Amino acid sequence: MVSIENIQKLCNDEIIVLTEHLLARMRQRGIKYDDLKQTIRNGEIIEQYPMDYPFPSCLISSVDLHIVCSIGEGVLYIITAYRPSGEKWEKDGKTRRGSQ
Q1: At 32, is the secondary structure helix, strand, or coil?
Q2: What DSSP string describes 47-61?
Q3: Does pTM surpass 0.85?
Q4: Res 7: pLDDT
């Protein structure tokens, strides 16, 4: 499993890899690079995806942003980022609607 502490240790410009998918989504959604780093520094893991390939990943939530990332070979990969919608997420931004 991925831990927030390990992710935070790798939250360093030299070892963060931004996927092409992420870069496209950031442009579409008006998300800034600093928003990603802030989410990693202050957020919490709300879901784990241990079967993801090539590395297990997780979903990190902060006040108004979710990011999916993974750690592999000493590098932090940020896969996607989005603002949680009220249609899919409860007001806390951490609980999927209908998952209770």
Answers
A1: coil
A2: EEETT-SSS-EEEEE
A3: yes
A4: 95
